[in-house]
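Consortium newsletter contribution from the modelling node. Members have asked for a concrete example of what our holo predictions look like. Here is one, prepared for the iron/sulfur cluster complex that several groups have been discussing at recent meetings.
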Amino acid sequence: MEKDTISKTLKILQNHFSQERKTTLNRMRGEDPYKILVGCIVSINIKDEVTEKILEELFEKADSFEELLKLEQEELERMLYLARYRKIKANTLKNISKEILDKYNGKVPDTKEELLKIKGIGPKTANVVLNFAFNKPYIPIDSNTLRITNRIGWITTEKHADVEIMLIKNLDETTLKNANALFMLHGKTICVPVSPFCSRCPVNELCAKVGVEKSR
Ligand code: SF4
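And here is the predicted structure:
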């Protein structure tokens, strides 16, 4: 796949979704790294509206790792009541807070190597933090990004890391930093998992529709 086609596709998606409201995490871009990291953990596998609601209360009660660590476990789980895996998430948040306070003086590290040393932080969360909190050229790969890049025909893989390498190779820094928000919006509204809306897709002409057996 030509580099120009990949950039062109992203540009079309950028124009198409320019007026759309971005996800809570995307709207938090540039905020305190503590908030980005906590927001990312809370948001895993839940709807954006739920993430927004939970974070509003959570940041009101705890706007630093110290304060989060001081929260009673039951209180934290109660705040996460709408989130899937609330017990696991509450434990992860407490463990991460403790580790960052103990080993990093309360400051979120700004390199992938250090972030991945912290238990509870995986490659996707690390990339979100590096991109959204530190404005570095990393892209979190989620299920939307994986599905869309395969369908369009840019890559054939099930591995998130392969998609990340391919996008880094083919996109300039600014486009790369914004691409995740576009894939999320496109995957949620048009290139949905089952029977995508190809007839009203702005990148229809550029898409190979790999594996798409049924579309609308
Ligand atoms: S044409 Fe269809 S499969 Fe291709 S990106 Fe658009 S919605 Fe997805």
